[in-house]
Amino acid sequence: MPAKEYKNSRVADNREQVEHHIREILRLIGEDPDREGLLDTPARVTRMYEEIFAGYDADVKDILGVAFDEKHEELVIVKDIVYYSQCEHHMAPFFGKIHIGYIPSGKIAGLSKFARLVEAVTRRLQVQERITSEIADIIETELEPHGCMVVVEGEHLCMCARGVKKPGSKTVTSAVRGLFRTDAASRSEFLSLIKD
């Protein structure tokens, strides 16, 4: 599925300022922003920021769109949704997979809407814990399911490439709502179905 093209309008509207500050950062770390390989870097970084911070312009509550009336009241899972985000502490990338499960109570959303929701929530400065809770809360509010559960796996470059330098380590977070909180069998079914 090609991702919908979101852009951060604030970055676009302030392109000159953003480029100026990127150029200054290059200078402050000891680089020559006028050398050949760096001449276009401020513009490239600005275009990248438009893309990777596009979630700020998304109306996350509107992403799920029109819910369809459907009598299906069994577990629905959309798994292995790949995401990329930026750590709000270091502005370093983190990435991984998100697994979403919900038990409808008469309303369902189109399956691609869950991938769009992930894009909208992750394309901003974030922490993995908040991503997990926000996705679950939006699904709970907008679809009013019997229950929903979200599991997020992430590899954080702020932990892999700096600091403790532990490449390959993963962080796993979960958010549990409704029936999944009280029904161990439903929770176990979801967890077993998202395993590789």
Automatic annotation (TrEMBL):
<comment type="pathway">
    <text>Cofactor biosynthesis; 7,8-dihydroneopterin triphosphate biosynthesis; 7,8-dihydroneopterin triphosphate from GTP: step 1/1.</text>
</comment>
<keyword id="KW-0554">One-carbon metabolism</keyword>
<feature type="binding site">
    <location>
        <position position="90"/>
    </location>
    <ligand>
        <name>Zn(2+)</name>
    </ligand>
</feature>
<dbReference type="InterPro" id="IPR020602">
    <property type="entry name" value="GTP_CycHdrlase_I_dom"/>
</dbReference>
<dbReference type="GO" id="GO:0008270">
    <property type="term" value="F:zinc ion binding"/>
</dbReference>
<dbReference type="GO" id="GO:0005525">
    <property type="term" value="F:GTP binding"/>
</dbReference>
<dbReference type="GO" id="GO:0006729">
    <property type="term" value="P:tetrahydrobiopterin biosynthetic process"/>
</dbReference>
<dbReference type="InterPro" id="IPR043134">
    <property type="entry name" value="GTP-CH-I_N"/>
</dbReference>
<dbReference type="GO" id="GO:0046654">
    <property type="term" value="P:tetrahydrofolate biosynthetic process"/>
</dbReference>
<comment type="subunit">
    <text>Homopolymer.</text>
</comment>
<keyword id="KW-0862">Zinc</keyword>
<protein>
    <recommendedName>
        <fullName>GTP cyclohydrolase 1</fullName>
        <ecNumber>3.5.4.16</ecNumber>
    </recommendedName>
</protein>
<dbReference type="Pfam" id="PF01227">
    <property type="entry name" value="GTP_cyclohydroI"/>
</dbReference>
<keyword id="KW-0342">GTP-binding</keyword>
<dbReference type="GO" id="GO:0006730">
    <property type="term" value="P:one-carbon metabolic process"/>
</dbReference>
<keyword id="KW-0378">Hydrolase</keyword>
<keyword id="KW-0479">Metal-binding</keyword>
<feature type="domain" description="GTP cyclohydrolase I">
    <location>
        <begin position="19"/>
        <end position="194"/>
    </location>
</feature>
<dbReference type="InterPro" id="IPR043133">
    <property type="entry name" value="GTP-CH-I_C/QueF"/>
</dbReference>
<feature type="binding site">
    <location>
        <position position="158"/>
    </location>
    <ligand>
        <name>Zn(2+)</name>
    </ligand>
</feature>
<keyword id="KW-0547">Nucleotide-binding</keyword>
<comment type="similarity">
    <text>Belongs to the GTP cyclohydrolase I family.</text>
</comment>
<dbReference type="GO" id="GO:0003934">
    <property type="term" value="F:GTP cyclohydrolase I activity"/>
</dbReference>
<dbReference type="InterPro" id="IPR018234">
    <property type="entry name" value="GTP_CycHdrlase_I_CS"/>
</dbReference>
<feature type="binding site">
    <location>
        <position position="87"/>
    </location>
    <ligand>
        <name>Zn(2+)</name>
    </ligand>
</feature>
<dbReference type="GO" id="GO:0005737">
    <property type="term" value="C:cytoplasm"/>
</dbReference>
<dbReference type="InterPro" id="IPR001474">
    <property type="entry name" value="GTP_CycHdrlase_I"/>
</dbReference>
